[in-house]
Structure formats: structure tokens, C-alpha cells
Design brief:
This protein is mainly α and 108 residues long. It has four helices and no strands.
């Protein structure tokens, strides 16, 4: 169950990065709404991470959390914010996904 909580925490990390990207593009009062959403998503992400590492080793949990966040944020950047997508970016994101799966596989 804590592995699912950890994945959800990573998805909230993606959400708070998305909010930062939208705040960068926003004007007027919308900026504050995006920054407020960032704070909510960041808080939820950290609270879920705290819950997950109660049974998952801290190093593994943190690595998976940041990995899910990194992969998700790069994908959101490519799909939503039109960040560049080339062979090397896709290659290294793929190796990161493999590393996350590997950490899960060797954890007790």
C-alpha cells in the first residue's frame, strides 16, 4: 500500500511542477491561484512521502519519489509546455524509469 502512496506522492510532485509552469505563463491574479495550487500540491506530496517512508527505506522512497516526479515533469513539459523532445531526452527518461522499477524490484 505504501508503494501506491509513494507513486501518488510523486504524481503530486508533477502537479506542483505543472503549477509552477502555469504560474510562469499567467498574468494578474491567476499567478496567485497557480502559486496557491503549487503550495497545496507540494504539501500533499510531502505528507504522502512522509507516510510512504514509514515502511519503505528512506533512500529508496526518496529516489522513487523524485524519479516519478522527474519523469512526469519531463513528460508534462513535452506534452503541455512544448519542451523539446529528442532521442537523448527520451533515452535518459527511459533509463530513469528502468532505475525506478529496479529500485522497487530490489527493495524488501
Amino acid at each position: 500500500m505504501n508503494w501506491i502512496i509513494l507513486i501518488i506522492a510523486g504524481l503530486f510532485e508533477v502537479a506542483f511542477a505543472y503549477c509552477l509552469g502555469k504560474a510562469k505563463e499567467a498574468t494578474g491574479i491567476d499567478i496567485y491561484l497557480w502559486y496557491g495550487s503549487f503550495l497545496v500540491c507540494a504539501t500533499i506530496s510531502f505528507l504522502l512521502l512522509i507516510k510512504a517512508i514509514q515502511t519503505i527505506p528512506v533512500g529508496t522512497g526518496y529516489a522513487v519519489w523524485t524519479g516519478v516526479g522527474a519523469v512526469g515533469t519531463v513528460l508534462v513539459g513535452i506534452l503541455v509546455f512544448k519542451d523539446p523532445s529528442n532521442f537523448w531526452r527520451v533515452f535518459f527518461i527511459t533509463t530513469l524509469i528502468g532505475s525506478i522499477i529496479g529500485l522497487k524490484a530490489v527493495s524488501h
